[in-house]
Protein backbone atom coordinates (compact mmCIF):
# COMPACT_ATOMS: atom_id res chain seq x y z
CA UNK A 1 0.00 0.00 0.00
CA UNK A 2 1.05 3.57 -0.49
CA UNK A 3 2.71 5.56 2.25
CA UNK A 4 -0.35 7.71 2.88
CA UNK A 5 -3.62 5.83 3.10
CA UNK A 6 -6.51 7.89 1.64
CA UNK A 7 -9.31 6.08 3.49
CA UNK A 8 -7.42 6.19 6.76
CA UNK A 9 -6.60 9.88 6.37
CA UNK A 10 -10.15 10.76 5.35
CA UNK A 11 -11.62 8.91 8.31
CA UNK A 12 -9.18 10.61 10.66
CA UNK A 13 -10.26 13.99 9.29
CA UNK A 14 -13.91 13.08 9.77
CA UNK A 15 -13.19 12.26 13.40
CA UNK A 16 -11.65 15.67 14.00
CA UNK A 17 -14.42 17.55 12.25
CA UNK A 18 -17.01 15.64 14.28
CA UNK A 19 -15.44 16.76 17.54
CA UNK A 20 -16.84 20.26 18.17
CA UNK A 21 -14.94 20.78 21.44
CA UNK A 22 -11.60 20.05 19.80
CA UNK A 23 -12.41 22.32 16.86
CA UNK A 24 -13.40 25.09 19.23
CA UNK A 25 -10.01 25.06 20.94
CA UNK A 26 -7.97 24.71 17.75
CA UNK A 27 -9.81 27.10 15.45
CA UNK A 28 -12.57 29.16 17.06
CA UNK A 29 -10.74 30.21 20.23
CA UNK A 30 -7.54 31.46 18.50
CA UNK A 31 -9.71 33.30 15.96
CA UNK A 32 -11.65 34.86 18.82
CA UNK A 33 -8.35 35.87 20.47
CA UNK A 34 -7.31 37.57 17.24
CA UNK A 35 -10.56 39.51 17.05
CA UNK A 36 -10.40 40.56 20.73
CA UNK A 37 -6.69 41.36 21.01
CA UNK A 38 -6.06 42.40 17.40
CA UNK A 39 -8.85 43.33 15.07
CA UNK A 40 -10.84 45.42 17.56
CA UNK A 41 -7.97 47.29 19.22
CA UNK A 42 -6.85 50.86 18.49
CA UNK A 43 -3.24 49.81 18.00
CA UNK A 44 -4.06 47.41 15.22
CA UNK A 45 -3.16 49.84 12.43
CA UNK A 46 0.21 50.81 13.92
CA UNK A 47 3.10 49.94 11.63
CA UNK A 48 5.01 46.72 12.23
CA UNK A 49 7.76 45.80 9.76
CA UNK A 50 6.26 45.15 6.34
CA UNK A 51 2.73 45.63 7.61
CA UNK A 52 0.75 46.44 10.73
CA UNK A 53 0.22 45.20 14.29
CA UNK A 54 -3.04 43.45 13.34
CA UNK A 55 -1.02 41.22 11.02
CA UNK A 56 1.52 40.55 13.78
CA UNK A 57 -1.27 39.39 16.11
CA UNK A 58 -2.95 37.47 13.31
CA UNK A 59 0.19 35.41 12.64
CA UNK A 60 0.66 34.83 16.38
CA UNK A 61 -2.86 33.54 16.92
CA UNK A 62 -2.75 31.40 13.78
CA UNK A 63 0.47 29.87 15.11
CA UNK A 64 -1.15 29.21 18.49
CA UNK A 65 -4.15 27.53 16.80
CA UNK A 66 -1.90 25.47 14.55
CA UNK A 67 0.23 24.06 17.39
CA UNK A 68 -2.91 23.30 19.42
CA UNK A 69 -4.10 21.23 16.47
CA UNK A 70 -0.85 19.36 15.87
CA UNK A 71 -0.28 18.71 19.59
CA UNK A 72 -3.72 17.14 19.87
CA UNK A 73 -3.31 15.01 16.74
CA UNK A 74 0.15 13.83 17.81
CA UNK A 75 -0.93 13.11 21.37
CA UNK A 76 -4.06 11.21 20.43
CA UNK A 77 -2.12 9.21 17.85
CA UNK A 78 0.20 8.03 20.60
CA UNK A 79 -2.63 7.18 22.98
CA UNK A 80 -4.57 5.28 20.32
CA UNK A 81 -1.52 3.40 19.22
CA UNK A 82 -0.81 2.20 22.74
CA UNK A 83 -4.37 1.34 23.51
CA UNK A 84 -6.06 -1.43 21.56
CA UNK A 85 -6.21 0.34 18.20
CA UNK A 86 -2.47 -0.15 17.74
CA UNK A 87 -2.96 -3.89 18.22
CA UNK A 88 -5.84 -3.89 15.75
CA UNK A 89 -3.70 -2.10 13.15
CA UNK A 90 -0.94 -4.57 13.96
CA UNK A 91 -3.18 -7.26 12.47
CA UNK A 92 -3.23 -5.48 9.12
CA UNK A 93 -0.53 -4.98 6.49
CA UNK A 94 -0.40 -1.30 7.45
CA UNK A 95 3.11 -0.22 8.43
CA UNK A 96 4.03 2.17 11.23
CA UNK A 97 5.43 4.52 8.58
CA UNK A 98 2.02 4.69 6.91
CA UNK A 99 0.35 5.37 10.24
CA UNK A 100 2.80 8.18 10.99
CA UNK A 101 2.65 9.68 7.49
CA UNK A 102 -1.15 9.60 7.46
CA UNK A 103 -1.37 11.14 10.93
CA UNK A 104 1.15 13.83 9.94
CA UNK A 105 -1.00 14.63 6.91
CA UNK A 106 -4.01 14.89 9.18
CA UNK A 107 -2.09 17.13 11.58
CA UNK A 108 -1.14 19.48 8.74
CA UNK A 109 -4.66 19.59 7.33
CA UNK A 110 -6.18 20.27 10.76
CA UNK A 111 -3.54 22.91 11.50
CA UNK A 112 -4.53 24.59 8.23
CA UNK A 113 -8.07 25.17 9.58
CA UNK A 114 -7.19 27.86 12.19
CA UNK A 115 -4.65 29.37 9.80
CA UNK A 116 -7.21 29.70 6.99
CA UNK A 117 -9.90 30.97 9.35
CA UNK A 118 -7.73 33.56 11.11
CA UNK A 119 -6.04 34.75 7.91
CA UNK A 120 -9.50 35.15 6.33
CA UNK A 121 -10.67 37.22 9.29
CA UNK A 122 -7.39 39.14 9.00
CA UNK A 123 -8.14 40.05 5.40
CA UNK A 124 -11.58 41.30 6.42
CA UNK A 125 -10.42 43.28 9.45
CA UNK A 126 -7.51 45.25 8.07
CA UNK A 127 -4.43 43.16 8.72
CA UNK A 128 -1.93 44.36 6.16
CA UNK A 129 1.43 43.29 4.89
CA UNK A 130 3.27 42.47 1.69
CA UNK A 131 2.01 39.53 -0.36
CA UNK A 132 5.27 37.74 0.42
CA UNK A 133 4.68 38.27 4.14
CA UNK A 134 1.17 36.81 3.91
CA UNK A 135 2.26 33.74 1.97
CA UNK A 136 5.56 33.04 3.69
CA UNK A 137 4.20 33.49 7.20
CA UNK A 138 1.35 31.07 6.50
CA UNK A 139 3.79 28.49 5.20
CA UNK A 140 6.09 28.82 8.20
CA UNK A 141 3.15 28.64 10.64
CA UNK A 142 1.98 25.42 8.99
CA UNK A 143 5.37 23.75 8.57
CA UNK A 144 6.66 24.69 12.04
CA UNK A 145 3.51 23.38 13.70
CA UNK A 146 4.62 19.84 12.81
CA UNK A 147 7.31 20.09 15.51
CA UNK A 148 4.55 20.26 18.09
CA UNK A 149 3.00 17.07 16.82
CA UNK A 150 6.18 15.54 18.28
CA UNK A 151 5.49 17.37 21.55
CA UNK A 152 1.98 15.88 21.64
CA UNK A 153 3.38 12.50 20.70
CA UNK A 154 5.88 12.56 23.56
CA UNK A 155 3.22 13.58 26.09
CA UNK A 156 0.84 10.91 24.78
CA UNK A 157 3.55 8.24 24.99
CA UNK A 158 4.58 9.31 28.48
CA UNK A 159 1.18 9.53 30.12
CA UNK A 160 -0.92 7.25 27.92
CA UNK A 161 -4.22 9.01 28.44
CA UNK A 162 -6.48 11.34 26.55
CA UNK A 163 -6.67 13.73 29.48
CA UNK A 164 -2.87 14.10 29.44
CA UNK A 165 -3.14 15.14 25.81
CA UNK A 166 -5.75 17.71 26.82
CA UNK A 167 -3.35 18.96 29.49
CA UNK A 168 -0.59 19.22 26.88
CA UNK A 169 -2.82 21.50 24.79
CA UNK A 170 -3.45 23.52 27.94
CA UNK A 171 0.31 23.81 28.53
CA UNK A 172 0.56 25.46 25.13
CA UNK A 173 -1.27 28.47 26.59
CA UNK A 174 1.53 28.82 29.14
CA UNK A 175 4.19 28.31 26.48
CA UNK A 176 2.43 30.94 24.36
CA UNK A 177 2.54 33.55 27.12
CA UNK A 178 6.16 32.68 27.97
CA UNK A 179 7.14 32.43 24.31
CA UNK A 180 6.23 35.96 23.26
CA UNK A 181 3.21 34.67 21.30
CA UNK A 182 0.25 36.43 22.91
CA UNK A 183 1.77 39.67 24.17
CA UNK A 184 5.06 41.29 23.19
CA UNK A 185 7.49 40.77 26.06
CA UNK A 186 10.50 42.85 26.95
CA UNK A 187 13.46 42.89 29.33
CA UNK A 188 14.07 39.80 31.45
CA UNK A 189 10.83 38.17 30.33
CA UNK A 190 11.98 38.40 26.73
CA UNK A 191 15.35 36.89 27.68
CA UNK A 192 13.57 33.97 29.32
CA UNK A 193 11.17 33.71 26.38
CA UNK A 194 14.04 32.93 24.01
CA UNK A 195 14.52 29.56 25.76
CA UNK A 196 10.86 28.47 25.70
CA UNK A 197 9.43 26.09 23.08
CA UNK A 198 7.14 28.42 21.13
CA UNK A 199 9.55 31.34 20.82
CA UNK A 200 11.60 30.19 17.85
CA UNK A 201 8.56 28.97 15.97
CA UNK A 202 6.47 32.11 16.31
CA UNK A 203 9.38 34.49 15.68
CA UNK A 204 10.24 32.60 12.50
CA UNK A 205 6.59 32.76 11.42
CA UNK A 206 6.56 36.53 11.97
CA UNK A 207 9.91 37.10 10.29
CA UNK A 208 8.44 37.66 6.80
CA UNK A 209 6.52 40.54 8.43
CA UNK A 210 9.03 41.84 10.96
CA UNK A 211 12.28 41.20 9.04
CA UNK A 212 13.65 40.13 12.40
CA UNK A 213 12.78 43.21 14.44
CA UNK A 214 11.34 42.36 17.85
CA UNK A 215 8.18 44.30 18.59
CA UNK A 216 7.97 45.82 22.08
CA UNK A 217 5.11 47.30 24.06
CA UNK A 218 6.94 50.14 25.79
CA UNK A 219 7.38 52.24 22.66
CA UNK A 220 11.15 51.73 22.50
CA UNK A 221 12.70 51.20 19.09
CA UNK A 222 12.39 47.59 17.87
CA UNK A 223 15.61 45.63 18.19
CA UNK A 224 16.93 43.52 15.34
CA UNK A 225 17.37 39.90 16.41
CA UNK A 226 19.68 37.57 14.52
CA UNK A 227 18.00 34.71 12.68
CA UNK A 228 20.08 32.04 14.42
CA UNK A 229 18.30 32.62 17.75
CA UNK A 230 14.93 31.60 16.31
CA UNK A 231 16.36 28.76 14.24
CA UNK A 232 18.36 27.35 17.15
CA UNK A 233 15.38 27.56 19.50
CA UNK A 234 13.11 25.65 17.11
CA UNK A 235 15.83 23.16 16.18
CA UNK A 236 16.75 22.35 19.77
CA UNK A 237 13.15 21.92 20.87
CA UNK A 238 12.38 19.76 17.83
CA UNK A 239 15.37 17.58 18.77
CA UNK A 240 14.26 17.41 22.42
CA UNK A 241 10.71 16.33 21.50
CA UNK A 242 11.94 13.81 18.92
CA UNK A 243 14.44 12.32 21.35
CA UNK A 244 11.80 12.05 24.07
CA UNK A 245 9.40 10.37 21.66
CA UNK A 246 12.04 7.84 20.58
CA UNK A 247 13.02 7.04 24.18
CA UNK A 248 9.39 6.62 25.19
CA UNK A 249 8.63 4.35 22.24
CA UNK A 250 11.60 2.19 23.28
CA UNK A 251 10.35 2.09 26.86
CA UNK A 252 6.95 0.97 25.55
CA UNK A 253 8.54 -1.82 23.48
CA UNK A 254 10.56 -3.03 26.44
CA UNK A 255 7.41 -3.56 28.45
CA UNK A 256 5.82 -5.90 25.98
CA UNK B 1 -15.58 -21.66 -0.27
CA UNK B 2 -12.86 -24.23 -0.84
CA UNK B 3 -9.52 -24.09 0.84
CA UNK B 4 -6.55 -25.37 -1.14
CA UNK B 5 -4.32 -28.11 0.18
CA UNK B 6 -1.19 -26.67 1.72
CA UNK B 7 1.89 -28.69 2.53
CA UNK B 8 2.76 -26.55 5.57
CA UNK B 9 0.58 -26.84 8.69
CA UNK B 10 -1.62 -23.93 9.61
CA UNK B 11 0.53 -23.24 12.63
CA UNK B 12 3.84 -24.53 13.88
CA UNK B 13 5.63 -23.45 17.04
CA UNK B 14 9.05 -24.85 17.81
CA UNK B 15 10.72 -24.27 21.17
CA UNK B 16 8.97 -20.93 21.59
CA UNK B 17 9.72 -18.98 24.76
CA UNK B 18 8.95 -15.46 25.78
CA UNK B 19 10.26 -13.64 28.79
CA UNK B 20 10.27 -9.99 29.67
CA UNK B 21 11.42 -7.74 32.47
CA UNK B 22 8.92 -6.63 35.06
CA UNK B 23 10.69 -4.37 37.49
CA UNK B 24 13.72 -6.34 38.66
CA UNK B 25 12.26 -9.74 37.91
CA UNK B 26 12.27 -11.63 34.70
CA UNK B 27 8.84 -13.03 33.89
CA UNK B 28 8.79 -16.22 31.83
CA UNK B 29 5.38 -15.93 30.22
CA UNK B 30 5.87 -18.76 27.74
CA UNK B 31 8.33 -21.64 28.18
CA UNK B 32 9.52 -23.83 25.35
CA UNK B 33 6.20 -24.43 23.62
CA UNK B 34 6.03 -26.90 20.73
CA UNK B 35 2.75 -27.03 18.88
CA UNK B 36 1.50 -28.00 15.46
CA UNK B 37 -2.00 -27.31 14.23
CA UNK B 38 -3.20 -28.70 10.93
CA UNK B 39 -5.47 -27.04 8.41
CA UNK B 40 -9.14 -27.17 9.29
CA UNK B 41 -8.61 -28.00 12.97
CA UNK B 42 -10.59 -26.25 15.67
CA UNK B 43 -8.34 -25.98 18.71
CA UNK B 44 -8.91 -24.48 22.14
CA UNK B 45 -5.98 -23.09 24.08
CA UNK B 46 -7.22 -23.54 27.61
CA UNK B 47 -5.66 -22.29 30.79
CA UNK B 48 -6.19 -20.09 33.81
CA UNK B 49 -5.40 -16.37 33.70
CA UNK B 50 -1.69 -15.78 33.44
CA UNK B 51 -1.00 -19.14 31.81
CA UNK B 52 0.55 -17.46 28.76
CA UNK B 53 -2.39 -17.76 26.36
CA UNK B 54 -2.45 -14.14 25.18
CA UNK B 55 1.34 -13.91 24.97
CA UNK B 56 1.44 -17.05 22.84
CA UNK B 57 -1.28 -15.80 20.50
CA UNK B 58 0.39 -12.36 20.27
CA UNK B 59 3.54 -14.05 19.00
CA UNK B 60 1.54 -16.16 16.54
CA UNK B 61 0.03 -12.92 15.21
CA UNK B 62 3.39 -11.17 14.95
CA UNK B 63 2.40 -8.55 17.53
CA UNK B 64 5.41 -9.52 19.65
CA UNK B 65 8.55 -11.47 18.90
CA UNK B 66 9.45 -14.65 20.76
CA UNK B 67 12.56 -14.46 22.95
CA UNK B 68 13.61 -17.74 21.37
CA UNK B 69 12.14 -20.39 19.09
CA UNK B 70 10.39 -20.31 15.75
CA UNK B 71 6.84 -19.70 14.63
CA UNK B 72 5.44 -20.42 11.19
CA UNK B 73 1.95 -19.72 9.92
CA UNK B 74 1.33 -21.71 6.74
CA UNK B 75 5.09 -21.84 6.41
CA UNK B 76 5.41 -18.05 6.66
CA UNK B 77 6.76 -15.78 9.35
CA UNK B 78 3.77 -14.43 11.34
CA UNK B 79 4.16 -10.86 10.06
CA UNK B 80 4.20 -12.08 6.45
CA UNK B 81 1.16 -14.26 7.06
CA UNK B 82 -0.67 -11.19 8.39
CA UNK B 83 0.39 -9.17 5.33
CA UNK B 84 -0.84 -11.94 3.06
CA UNK B 85 -4.18 -12.01 4.88
CA UNK B 86 -3.80 -15.68 5.81
CA UNK B 87 -4.19 -15.14 9.54
CA UNK B 88 -6.35 -12.70 11.46
CA UNK B 89 -7.72 -12.41 14.93
CA UNK B 90 -10.38 -11.24 17.33
CA UNK B 91 -8.44 -9.61 20.13
CA UNK B 92 -9.43 -9.72 23.76
CA UNK B 93 -9.66 -6.04 24.63
CA UNK B 94 -9.43 -2.56 23.22
CA UNK B 95 -8.84 -2.51 19.52
CA UNK B 96 -11.52 -0.03 18.59
CA UNK B 97 -11.87 3.73 18.27
CA UNK B 98 -14.89 4.77 20.27
CA UNK B 99 -15.79 7.78 18.15
CA UNK B 100 -16.03 5.91 14.84
CA UNK B 101 -19.20 4.24 13.64
CA UNK B 102 -19.31 0.50 13.13
CA UNK B 103 -19.22 0.83 9.36
CA UNK B 104 -16.38 3.39 9.38
CA UNK B 105 -14.32 1.03 11.49
CA UNK B 106 -14.83 -1.81 9.03
CA UNK B 107 -14.01 0.47 6.07
CA UNK B 108 -10.78 1.77 7.62
CA UNK B 109 -9.47 -1.71 8.37
CA UNK B 110 -10.65 -2.96 4.96
CA UNK B 111 -8.65 -0.19 3.27
CA UNK B 112 -5.40 -1.48 4.75
CA UNK B 113 -5.64 -4.77 2.85
CA UNK B 114 -4.75 -5.03 -0.81
CA UNK B 115 -7.81 -7.18 -1.37
CA UNK B 116 -10.51 -7.59 1.20
CA UNK B 117 -13.97 -9.09 1.40
CA UNK B 118 -16.80 -6.67 0.60
CA UNK B 119 -17.60 -4.55 3.66
CA UNK B 120 -21.36 -5.17 3.46
CA UNK B 121 -20.91 -8.93 3.21
CA UNK B 122 -18.56 -9.12 6.17
CA UNK B 123 -20.92 -7.05 8.31
CA UNK B 124 -23.78 -9.33 7.31
CA UNK B 125 -21.84 -12.45 8.29
CA UNK B 126 -20.88 -10.96 11.65
CA UNK B 127 -24.47 -9.90 12.24
CA UNK B 128 -23.80 -6.17 12.57
CA UNK B 129 -25.47 -4.82 9.41
CA UNK B 130 -28.18 -3.20 11.49
CA UNK B 131 -25.56 -1.40 13.59
CA UNK B 132 -23.69 0.16 10.65
CA UNK B 133 -24.27 3.77 11.66
CA UNK B 134 -23.94 3.31 15.39
CA UNK B 135 -20.94 4.77 17.22
CA UNK B 136 -18.64 2.13 18.65
CA UNK B 137 -18.98 3.78 22.07
CA UNK B 138 -22.73 3.05 21.98
CA UNK B 139 -22.29 -0.65 21.21
CA UNK B 140 -22.56 -3.30 23.92
CA UNK B 141 -19.62 -5.58 24.70
CA UNK B 142 -21.15 -8.33 22.58
CA UNK B 143 -21.75 -5.97 19.66
CA UNK B 144 -18.18 -4.69 19.83
CA UNK B 145 -16.97 -8.27 19.78
CA UNK B 146 -19.05 -8.93 16.66
CA UNK B 147 -17.46 -5.88 15.09
CA UNK B 148 -14.00 -7.23 15.91
CA UNK B 149 -15.08 -10.48 14.37
CA UNK B 150 -16.17 -8.65 11.20
CA UNK B 151 -12.72 -7.01 11.06
CA UNK B 152 -11.10 -10.42 11.39
CA UNK B 153 -13.13 -11.72 8.43
CA UNK B 154 -12.00 -8.90 6.09
CA UNK B 155 -8.86 -10.61 4.72
CA UNK B 156 -10.73 -13.93 4.36
CA UNK B 157 -8.16 -15.61 6.61
CA UNK B 158 -7.34 -19.32 6.52
CA UNK B 159 -6.46 -19.23 10.20
CA UNK B 160 -8.67 -17.37 12.62
CA UNK B 161 -7.35 -16.65 16.11
CA UNK B 162 -9.76 -15.71 18.89
CA UNK B 163 -8.42 -14.49 22.21
CA UNK B 164 -11.11 -15.03 24.86
CA UNK B 165 -13.73 -14.01 22.31
CA UNK B 166 -16.71 -14.17 24.62
CA UNK B 167 -15.24 -12.48 27.69
CA UNK B 168 -17.78 -10.01 29.03
CA UNK B 169 -20.70 -11.38 27.00
CA UNK B 170 -23.95 -12.51 28.54
CA UNK B 171 -25.18 -16.03 27.97
CA UNK B 172 -27.35 -15.23 24.95
CA UNK B 173 -24.63 -13.19 23.24
CA UNK B 174 -22.15 -15.98 23.90
CA UNK B 175 -24.44 -18.56 22.33
CA UNK B 176 -25.01 -16.36 19.26
CA UNK B 177 -21.29 -15.75 18.89
CA UNK B 178 -20.45 -19.43 18.90
CA UNK B 179 -23.25 -20.16 16.45
CA UNK B 180 -21.63 -17.68 14.03
CA UNK B 181 -18.25 -19.24 14.66
CA UNK B 182 -19.56 -22.72 13.95
CA UNK B 183 -20.68 -21.50 10.54
CA UNK B 184 -17.17 -20.20 9.80
CA UNK B 185 -15.47 -23.36 11.00
CA UNK B 186 -17.82 -25.45 8.90
CA UNK B 187 -16.31 -23.79 5.82
CA UNK B 188 -12.96 -25.32 6.62
CA UNK B 189 -11.31 -22.39 8.33
CA UNK B 190 -8.73 -23.28 10.95
CA UNK B 191 -9.79 -21.80 14.27
CA UNK B 192 -7.58 -21.40 17.33
CA UNK B 193 -9.17 -19.82 20.36
CA UNK B 194 -8.04 -19.06 23.85
CA UNK B 195 -10.46 -19.42 26.69
CA UNK B 196 -10.67 -20.11 30.36
CA UNK B 197 -14.23 -21.36 30.02
CA UNK B 198 -14.10 -25.15 30.05
CA UNK B 199 -17.54 -25.35 28.62
CA UNK B 200 -16.49 -23.44 25.50
CA UNK B 201 -13.44 -25.57 24.94
CA UNK B 202 -15.49 -28.69 25.49
CA UNK B 203 -18.36 -27.87 23.16
CA UNK B 204 -16.59 -26.06 20.37
CA UNK B 205 -13.07 -27.49 20.07
CA UNK B 206 -12.04 -30.87 18.71
CA UNK B 207 -8.70 -30.55 20.39
CA UNK B 208 -7.54 -28.86 23.58
CA UNK B 209 -4.09 -27.51 24.32
CA UNK B 210 -3.78 -26.95 28.04
CA UNK B 211 -1.39 -24.24 29.11
CA UNK B 212 -0.17 -23.76 32.64
CA UNK B 213 2.55 -21.36 33.73
CA UNK B 214 3.63 -20.88 30.14
CA UNK B 215 4.05 -24.57 29.32
CA UNK B 216 1.87 -27.02 27.43
CA UNK B 217 0.76 -29.51 30.07
CA UNK B 218 -1.61 -31.45 27.84
CA UNK B 219 -2.45 -31.52 24.14
CA UNK B 220 -5.03 -33.99 22.90
CA UNK B 221 -8.57 -34.43 21.68
CA UNK B 222 -11.22 -33.02 23.95
CA UNK B 223 -12.35 -36.54 24.95
CA UNK B 224 -8.81 -37.71 25.63
CA UNK B 225 -8.07 -34.69 27.80
CA UNK B 226 -11.16 -35.36 29.77
CA UNK B 227 -10.38 -39.04 30.11
CA UNK B 228 -6.66 -38.83 30.58
CA UNK B 229 -5.68 -36.36 33.11
CA UNK B 230 -7.95 -36.87 34.78
CA UNK B 231 -9.65 -37.54 36.17
CA UNK B 232 -10.71 -41.06 36.42
CA UNK B 233 -12.21 -41.81 39.78
CA UNK B 234 -11.51 -45.23 41.19
CA UNK B 235 -13.62 -46.40 44.10
CA UNK B 236 -13.17 -49.68 45.96
CA UNK B 237 -13.43 -51.37 49.36
CA UNK B 238 -9.92 -51.31 50.79
CA UNK B 239 -8.61 -51.80 54.30
CA UNK B 240 -7.88 -48.41 55.93
CA UNK B 241 -4.38 -49.62 56.75
CA UNK B 242 -3.47 -49.16 53.09
CA UNK B 243 -4.34 -45.45 52.83
CA UNK B 244 -0.76 -44.25 53.10
CA UNK B 245 0.32 -46.68 50.41
CA UNK B 246 -2.52 -45.51 48.15
CA UNK B 247 -1.45 -41.89 48.49
CA UNK B 248 2.12 -42.72 47.56
CA UNK B 249 1.16 -44.45 44.28
CA UNK B 250 2.26 -42.52 41.18
CA UNK B 251 -0.36 -40.28 39.59
CA UNK B 252 -2.71 -40.31 42.57
CA UNK B 253 -4.21 -36.91 43.18
CA UNK B 254 -6.53 -37.39 46.12
CA UNK B 255 -7.73 -40.11 48.42
CA UNK B 256 -11.02 -39.89 50.31
CA UNK B 257 -12.43 -42.50 52.63
CA UNK B 258 -15.88 -43.24 53.92
CA UNK B 259 -16.02 -46.34 56.08
CA UNK B 260 -14.60 -49.25 54.12
CA UNK B 261 -14.99 -47.47 50.81
CA UNK B 262 -12.14 -45.38 49.42
CA UNK B 263 -12.42 -42.95 46.48
CA UNK B 264 -9.23 -42.14 44.60
CA UNK B 265 -8.71 -39.56 41.85
CA UNK B 266 -5.81 -40.62 39.67
CA UNK B 267 -4.24 -40.06 36.28
CA UNK B 268 -3.70 -43.73 35.42
CA UNK B 269 -6.81 -45.62 36.51
CA UNK B 270 -5.61 -48.93 35.04
CA UNK B 271 -2.43 -49.01 37.09
CA UNK B 272 -4.30 -47.90 40.16
CA UNK B 273 -6.98 -50.55 39.73
CA UNK B 274 -4.29 -53.21 39.32
CA UNK B 275 -2.57 -52.10 42.52
CA UNK B 276 -5.80 -52.04 44.48
CA UNK B 277 -6.97 -55.45 43.31
CA UNK B 278 -3.64 -57.31 43.31
CA UNK B 279 -1.53 -55.66 45.99
CA UNK B 280 -3.94 -54.11 48.45
CA UNK B 281 -6.65 -56.74 48.54
CA UNK B 282 -9.39 -54.39 47.44
CA UNK B 283 -12.72 -55.47 45.96
CA UNK B 284 -15.98 -54.10 44.50
CA UNK B 285 -13.93 -51.80 42.32
CA UNK B 286 -15.61 -49.05 40.22
CA UNK B 287 -14.05 -46.68 37.69
CA UNK B 288 -15.84 -43.48 36.60
CA UNK B 289 -14.72 -40.56 34.43
CA UNK B 290 -14.21 -37.30 36.26
CA UNK B 291 -15.61 -34.01 35.04
CA UNK B 292 -13.64 -31.73 32.76
CA UNK B 293 -13.48 -29.25 35.61
CA UNK B 294 -11.62 -31.76 37.73
CA UNK B 295 -9.24 -32.46 34.86
CA UNK B 296 -8.63 -28.77 34.38
CA UNK B 297 -7.81 -28.14 38.01
CA UNK B 298 -5.67 -31.26 38.26
CA UNK B 299 -3.64 -30.35 35.19
CA UNK B 300 -3.18 -26.64 35.66
CA UNK B 301 -2.52 -26.46 39.38
CA UNK B 302 1.13 -25.65 40.12
CA UNK B 303 3.26 -28.76 40.05
CA UNK B 304 4.75 -28.45 43.52
CA UNK B 305 1.32 -28.30 45.11
CA UNK B 306 0.80 -31.89 46.21
CA UNK B 307 -0.97 -31.06 49.44
CA UNK B 308 -4.34 -32.16 48.10
CA UNK B 309 -3.09 -35.73 48.30
CA UNK B 310 -3.49 -35.99 52.03
CA UNK B 311 -6.17 -33.44 52.60
CA UNK B 312 -9.21 -35.65 52.57
CA UNK B 313 -8.36 -38.71 54.67
CA UNK B 314 -10.86 -39.88 57.28
CA UNK B 315 -9.38 -39.18 60.71
CA UNK B 316 -10.88 -42.27 62.25
Write a structural description:
The complex is a heterodimer of chains A (256) and B (316). Chain A is mainly alpha-helical and 256 residues long. Chain A has 10 helices and 4 strands; from the N terminus they run H-H-E-E-H-H-H-H-H-H-H-E-E-H. A two-stranded antiparallel sheet of chain A has the order 1-2. In chain A, strands 3-4 form a two-stranded antiparallel ribbon. In chain A, helix 5 crosses helix 6 (131-159). Chain B folds into 2 domains: 11-226, Rossmann fold; 230-310, Alpha-Beta Plaits. In chain B, 32% of the residues lie in helices and 28% in strands. Chain B is built from 11 helices and 13 strands. Chain B has helices spanning 53-60, 78-83, 102-112, 119-126, 141-153, 171-186, 198-204, 222-228, 243-248, 269-279, 292-300, and strands at residues 11-22, 25-37, 42-46, 68-73, 87-90, 159-163, 190-195, 207-212, 215-221, 232-237, 252-258, 261-266, 283-289. The chains are: A mainly alpha (256), B alpha/beta (316). At the A-B interface, helix 1 and helix 4 of A face helix 3 and helix 5 of B.
